[in-house]
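ENTRY TYPE: paired fold submission
RECORD: A
CONTENT: sequence, then structure tokens
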Amino acid sequence: MTNRLRAEIQEEELENEVVEVAPKKDIPDNWFTNFLRKGVITTDVATSALPFVLFLAGLGMVYIANMHMAEKNIRDIDKLDKEVKELSWDYKTTKAELAYRSTLTEVIKRADTLGLKEPIAPPVKLTVKAEEEQ
């Protein structure tokens, strides 16, 4: 390699470089492109309809958000319904256990552990006589 200036080398490289230009693709000629170019929809009509299209897109987003919230509420209701059923079962179990423990035989068994006994003699009625005034 010889001593040359950088500018000369760059000029040589630019001369040797071949630039290929891609051929411009033609738009296919079908009914859709004809409808958009020559049909009802033009650039002015599309521009004037843009606010309405954006309004419809906003309504669509509100509709989707509403559906998501409704599905979330349904899931929450189902979860609460299962919880209510479980608590109802707990209530019924506890109520049945209390009814069993409050029977006479169960009360006597529990009283024996405390040292209390069932009276054998019937209860005695006490009467108080008013004292005569002197």
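RECORD: B
CONTENT: sequence, then structure tokens
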Amino acid sequence: MSDPGNYAGSTDRSIGQLVASATAEMSALMHDEIALAKAEVRQDVKRGAIGSIAFVAAGVFALFSIPVLSFAAAYGIHNLGLGLAWSFLIVGVAFIALGWLLAFLGIRKFKKVKPPEKSIASAKQTAAVLQKAKPHPRPSIEAAAIIERSAVSGSSLAKKGVEGGSGQDKAGSVARSST
């Protein structure tokens, strides 16, 4: 059988042992949850990458099909009885007309774009409030205190052996700063 001391409901265990056991189990549960989340995210990223690759491949094939379809359209028009040169000219003009139409639609959409008026108004309001705000007064720092701080912190003045205005050695100023 199993050891009764290892059973979670055992009355022989102290409260400290129960808390330690609960903490260890919660920690293990959290680690397992994190591992599960990582596995799910990894799987979703893999699916997303495969989907992206599929879309890129579809775009490449669609792009490669445009010249083939253009030739097919031109030869189709030629088979209706029109000369080959005129057939290609008609297909070329159709592409130019389509390009102009798309450019016209794009320009119309760009003209409808407006600046973010609410964000600009909010930024101006924030700037106005901040301009009216007064900074908190700061106490003036004496030159001797600045030199003493730099001597304690190991700045270039301390390396040259310049001490603070108090006349004490470095060990004394370090002892004072550590209290």
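NOTES ON RECORD B: DSSP finds six helices and no strands in the chain. Helices lie at 15-79, 84-111, 117-132, 143-153, 156-160, 170-177.
STATUS: closed
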